Amino acid sequence: MSFEHKLNRGNLFVNIGKKESKHPDRKGQINVNGMLFDIAGWIATTEDGEYKMDKNGKPYLQLKISEPFKKKTEQPTDYDEEKPF
Description:
Elements: E1 10-14, E2 26-32, E3 35-43, E4 61-66
Antiparallel strand pairs: 1-2, 2-3, 3-4
């Protein structure tokens, strides 16, 4: 039995595999109107590495939503070994 997100709900988890600053701090999935999307979040920072603050003085996340990542499968070849050139 696999996990399914409820309609218009999702989860963000700490990205324990983050190795570079361009990698998201949080990642997960979200179900929007029955379609599953990947979601990634970065803690907003300045170029100096300081947290950006919202109007209440609290740090916030910047988000990106994309189609689910699919691993590339082996591409079929376009040639026939029986036919020369």
